[in-house]
Design brief:
Shape: globular
CATH superfamily of the largest domain: 2,3-Dihydroxybiphenyl 1,2-Dioxygenase, domain 1
Distance between the termini: 25 Å
Radius of gyration: 15 Å
CATH topology of the largest domain: 2,3-Dihydroxybiphenyl 1,2-Dioxygenase, domain 1
Number of strands: 8
Number of domains: 2
Largest sheet: 4 strands, mixed
């Protein structure tokens, strides 16, 4: 059996990325950060960890992997993420009826905010 334990994001400025991702995902530090690494976990304890790894790496576009963040209220979450420092990314090949908004964190790591208002998983999350 396998499960996702942690998603690793390469970062330049560890402190600012801790601030962005804890605010974006409502995560907390699992333990005090090291000089080049921080492990974030969901405040509720349920879900995968996010590891921030301050190791130089070349940015590749489009990224080979990215996060899809499900949003119950997509427009509100996009506004909130912009207030935290994220930016919306325009893509000429994005379908007109796309249910996602492409964004990037303050360092340019891309992710999508997916309109998941009807996702049945919300009931299990809100009950906890």
């Amino acid at each position: 059996m396998l499960m996702v334990g942690s998603i690793v994001i390469r970062v330049d400025d560890l402190a600012s990325q801790i601030s962005f991702w804890t605010g974006a995902l409502d995560y907390v530090l699992r333990e005090p950060p090291e000089d080049d690494f921080a492990l974030l976990q969901p405040r509720t304890g349920q879900g995968p960890n996010v590891s921030l790894d301050a190791v130089p790496s070349m940015r590749v576009l489009p990224p080979r992997i990215h996060l899809d963040l499900y949003a119950e209220d997509q427009a509100a979450e996009v506004r909130r993420l912009k207030d935290l420092g994220a930016r919306e990314v325009q893509w000429s090949r994005k379908p007109a009826d796309a249910d996602y908004v492409i964004m990037e964190d303050p360092e340019g790591n891309r992710f999508c905010v997916v309109d998941a208002a009807g996702w049945p998983g919300w009931a299990g999350i809100q009950a906890t």
